[in-house]
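Listing S7. Sequence submitted for prediction.
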Amino acid sequence: MSGKSKLVCLGIQLGGEILPEFLKTTGTFAQIEHMISIEIHRNFSLKKLNTFGIEAKAEELVIVRTPMALHQLIQLRRSPIQVLGGGSNLLFTGDLPGLTIKNEIDGIEIFIENKHDVLVKVGGGVVWHDFVLWAVEQGYGGIENLSLIPGTVGAAPIQNIGAYGVELKDVFQSLEAYDLTTGESHTFSHSDCHFGYRDSVFKRDLKGRFCIANVYFQLQKAPKINTDYGDIQLTLQSLGIENPSIKDVSNAVIHIRQSKLPNPAVIGNAGSFFKNPELEAVDFQRFIERFPQAPNYPQPDGRVKVPAGWLIEQAGWKGKRFGDAGCHAKQALVLVNYGGATGEEILALAEKIQASVLEKYGIALTPEVNVW
């Protein structure tokens, strides 16, 4: 048996070479008849499924398109499991053993609505920017500043994505996720997620434990326009827009991101590789006395954010290239794969940059990208 066999009666698509082993593992067709729209592949290349364009293979890749399929799959397979979303915030440093779930759970629907706002339920596999565009077209505000961030909706709470003065936690209501060890469904409230700067409980205590099936967002019908971030205001002014709509803000953000960040389809990258460090007041005072020209942004909690890109550029890394691994020529915060770099080579460059910034400034950079 070769190629792919379609089990139309079950709504399952299986790689032919997998079918005997899969049935041996699960027992009978009766056990998998509720698993709708699943694709299973063995030794699958992940090069096109990560924006760095790193070559790595998944021992077994399963594409899941419904929460029921996800639940049943976890119940039936108790091997090492990892979840892959849009592949936009990770760096592969080797092949993936066991089972890799590709989350493609779809759907955007208004769950609750009143005259002021809407609660929107979004599938974890929905492309984040597609959701933003949908909200903007509907006139629902709150996420327009997060336009063009790569990745999926299911990955967004894990990272607490943010840009241009807005973070996901500002519009997040709750999420539904499945425990990868038991298959049980759990609902996480805003407080359960313990959001921080590019951080959540899913990057700490619950790292690797859950696959997010659906996320609920509270969006505004009469949105408050947020143009406080300098580049947005300057871009709108250059376009002659004085009273911007959320669509104007979204377009401005798209313009800014496209002008500053390399397109992963052209040069492999995962966007910002490091978090912007936030210094305690006493540490910042010591830092700014030595480097008074450094840009900085006071935070509500008393700490001060210093742009990681500035630190890296001033340390001399901007535009540096080592083989096919490099630091982007226009944005020092972005590490790139010029075509043939391995994950280990990108990681080695990142570690050299960290050591250099620590030596020069006494500041430890923390990767924003997840290293697998």
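Caption to Listing S7: primary sequence and predicted structure tokens for the chain studied. Confidence is low (pLDDT under 50) at residues 1-36. Residues 205 and 266 are 36 Å apart (CA to CA).
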